[in-house]
Amino acid sequence: MRVVIVGAGPCGLYVAHLLFSLSIPSLHIMLLESEDRVGGRTQMGNYKGHVVVAGAGVIRKTDKRLRKLCRQMHIPTHSFQTHVKYPRPYQSKQYFLSLLETLKKNSSEFNLHETFSQNFQQIMGKEKYQDFIEMAGYTDFEDANVWDSLRDYGWNDNTSGQTMYGVNWNDLTDRMAHHLQMKYPLPFELLLNTKVDKVNYQKGKFTVFSSQHDKKIENIDVLFWTTPRPGWKPIQRFLPSSLLKEVQCQPFLRAYATPKHPQQAEITYPPHHVTHTRIDCCFQKVIPMSSSSSSKKDDTIYMISYSDNQHAVESNRKFLTKNKQIQNDWKDPQLYFWECGTHYYSPSLLTTSQERDTWLNKAVHPSLSHPLFLASEGISTQQGWTEGALESAERAVRQFLLFIT
């Protein structure tokens, strides 16, 4: 059986691992990646000699698949507790969670054709909503289905006292790729710099085309597609319009800098690796990333923007680098921008976890007449998290097994 997986992020790599674990006779897997590296939106960068996160952030205590994968790949993680400092004196974890609880109690008033933001403001008002998004530190739920957001967003992850784990994502995904190449040297191929531009299906077989190398790969029995939403264009004709409408994505931005006035920065943004200081502006939050106890003040670096949605668009990125007040406080900004950083579900009539589960089973195998399977953090109950990518990979492989048996 010839299988092609498009996309070598954690999802695509995990799909390959799962398929090989099934011991399917004569299985051959080809993994295609448009970039010159594996990892997708999990990526580490370098800022002033410090290894920093460029894409996906942390691992949560509840991310059982991801934590198990790190153990299997012998990748170390380090745990820490989160601490949040809110922008206004009256804001608190208790207030934040109470707003969510009040919203749930008024669920009978939800308009399922409207977004989380619209429902919240209609029920509780604009002022409380402004408080809510300041305390949340994100806005990636604003345009989403209200029930999915309430049930699956993981609001506690944005509060103090949560156990998180840091990991070097490059080490993890490189190790996954290396493991596949060493354990399955003949039935596994990894092709980098191979962007798929076109997909055909004829007589029960797929053919994929890549203009990067004027390459054509034929006689594909099964195709797994593990890219973010914008990468679905070559397979769009195989997907139902309802799926294309419901799964959406939004931009994401990280920016690192060093303070021009370190002592003042220590007062305003307490120098602990895990302190998220929520602020009422385009930054959304400021996070000290290294200890200020070093004799070299340049060793104190900050993530000065951890922003999503409209806060990550081009005008805001220019603001971060051009604004005089910012230039007075910070120096040497380094930005990491993702046009499609995280996904969300647009408003729909789905209200229960059972309904979403049924929808997901159909979404990962969108056309029963074609052996095409979708897997992505965007098609999971944990959108925005790497754990969601692994969850989706497992679901897609389960549907694949149902298809071939």
UniProtKB/TrEMBL annotation:
Species in which this protein is naturally found: viral metagenome
* Taxonomic lineage of the native organism: unclassified sequences, metagenomes, organismal metagenomes
Instruction: Write the protein's name.
Output: Amine oxidase domain-containing protein
According to the UniProt entry, its GO molecular function terms are: oxidoreductase activity
Instruction: Tell me the Pfam families matching this sequence.
Output: NAD_binding_8 (PF13450)
